[in-house]
Amino acid sequence: MKLRPKPLMPVVDRLAWKLKWRCSNDREHPDYQSVLSNVKAEIKAGNCAWAFLAGPKYCINVHVLFDGESNALIQLVAVDPVRQKCGLRIECNPAKMQSGDVEKLHAVMRRIIGHREYNRLMREPLLQVFHVAVDILYLALDKVLVQYKNGQLMTVFGKRVNAKGIIEGYNFGSVESNYQTTVYDKHLERVHAAVMEIARTGSTGTNADPLTANRIRQLKKAINGCETTRVEVRGKKMLGLPLWKLPQQTNRFERFSFADLSAAGSELPPLIEKAFQAMCRQDGVKATLAAFKHTEYARSVPKYWRSHQATWWQPAQLWEQACAALRESRIFPPAAFEPPHNRK
Fold it and tell me: What are 5-21's pLDDT values in tens digits?
């Protein structure tokens, strides 16, 4: 029996923000030496590790080490304090953070730059990156048609196809745009990640290597898991947006619409149906509907599209729910979500 697709609650998949913290980048300055000494103490205690980045914009770059799947990246002391208005940048993946990770991040930061200073700065974070993801269970990407309605004059449309010709994902939005949206097969991504992990670590034999045996179990779990499609809105350039303004941003999830090909709806002749689906995946829904306007299927094709619209996709509250998820993560204090004139 086919299970009805089930969208889950949004999760914050990537988050980066800056704080208006100042520190001299003179290596001999007492303030710089104090911060560097504090960072080295955290590394010695096993709480942090050096981060080696290509062309860093900050003098000190470290990872705060968590017990879960991901770590937080901390960048301190601006290389060019004249052009860089903020001397501290933090990046993490809230969706992968486990219990205690947020508390550890805050504790490490308070020891590095000072308890009062950190608490004061965190009341006014400036967002740089904000990615939100919604997983749809029991949905295979090759069983739906995806449309993204964008108010801009032009949108770059791309897709990723595997060796068998099955579409693994769609990307909407140009490289230069502040936002990019994407829909991709999360199930295939999990399987690929499990295979790459086994290939990366190698093995002396599955029976003799408990770690590899565990990874193989994870691979089998990924293969046998339910079909999952992920919808993401990626705010790549939030341009220092004050956190309290985040709920006011456009709900880009509402620009998506899906045609569920496995659901009941009007029918087309088999050849026309396949042609319509192929053209939608090649050129996009809007261009395909326009192409059928002056044919004998000018009415039946739009009717087919409308009759298969997914009723399970209800995006109106998704952005609001994503903002609520960020608040509930306790990464930022409650005051950071309030306009300055409302703060106590």
Answer: 999 999 999 999 999 99
Neighbours of 210 (CB within 10 A): 9
Residue at token pair 């044919």: 295
Q: Tokens 């913290």 identify what position?
A: 21
CATH 3.30.310 placement within the chain: 21-123
- Range 166-175 contact pairs with CB under 8 angstroms and sequence separation of 24 or more: 166/142, 167/141, 167/142, 167/281, 168/141, 169/141, 170/146, 172/148
- Token pair for residue 335? 């005051």
Q: 207: which 2 tokens?
A: 């029976």
pLDDT in tens, 128-181: 999 999 999 999 888 899 998 875 534 455 666 666 667 788 888 777 889 999
**What is the number of residues in the chain?**
344
Which residues touch 258 (CB under 8 Å, ≥6 apart)? 144, 145, 146, 147, 309, 310, 313
- Domain topology for 21-123: TATA-Binding Protein (3.30.310)
**3-class DSSP state for residue 181?**
strand
- Which contacts of 177-180 are long-range, i.e. CB under 8 A and separated by 24 or more positions? 177/152, 177/236, 178/235, 178/236, 178/237, 178/238, 178/239, 179/233, 179/234, 179/235, 179/236, 179/252, 180/234, 180/236
Of 303, 337, 305, 339, the residue nearest 320 (C-alpha): 337
